Amino acid sequence: MRRRAAVMAGPGPGSVPLVRYAVPGECVAVLPSGGGDLPAGGPGVGVLLRRGNLFGHLTVEQNVLLAGRLATRRTPENVAGLLELTGLAGRGDAYPGTLSIMEGARAGVAVALAGTPEVVVADEPAGELDGLAALELMDLLRAVACRGTAVVVATRDPGIAAAAHRIVRVA
Questions:
Q1: How far is the C-alpha of 124 from the C-alpha of 116, rounded, in Å?
Q2: How far apart (Å, rounded) are the C-alpha atoms in residues 146 and 61?
Q3: Is the CB of residue 32 less than 8 Å from the CB of residue 143?
Q4: CA distance 2 to 78
Q5: By the 8 A CB rule, do 34 and 26 touch?
Q6: pTM value?
Q7: Which of 67, 65, 60 is nearest to 106 (CA)?
Q8: Which tens digits make up the pLDDT trace of 41-56?
Q9: Quick one: which of 22, 15, 53 has its CA closest to 119?
């Protein structure tokens, strides 16, 4: 199992987006468990932004396929599995504009995982969700970590950060 880490940012604009520039080996908040196998596929970073990384003119399935192709230069074999993992089985033909906010967040997780990255960096992933939906999204990110992908969450919300194994505070 990979570890989950949270980067807690101080007040002010621009402090959380610093994680967008993180690369494997350079982000101090990525904490591998030390004994787990790496996920299948090439090394890389999946990025999950507050708005889910979705192109509005593509269906959810097409968004996941495109992300996988861009990340691995081949068609991902696990699109149906990613949609099932994220709770979107049967919603692959939906367009982002027809999704609820929570479904959009789930679709963003599927897009971030499409290239089978070693690390998913999430920048305020629950920023537009209410309390219960935010906890549900964090449960999904915990499941991602349990499957072998390290997860780093940048947030200002102490409740979201509490889901991490380790919290790194950025002043």
A1: 21
A2: 24
A3: no
A4: 20
A5: no
A6: 0.76
A7: 60
A8: 445 778 777 666 789 9
A9: 22
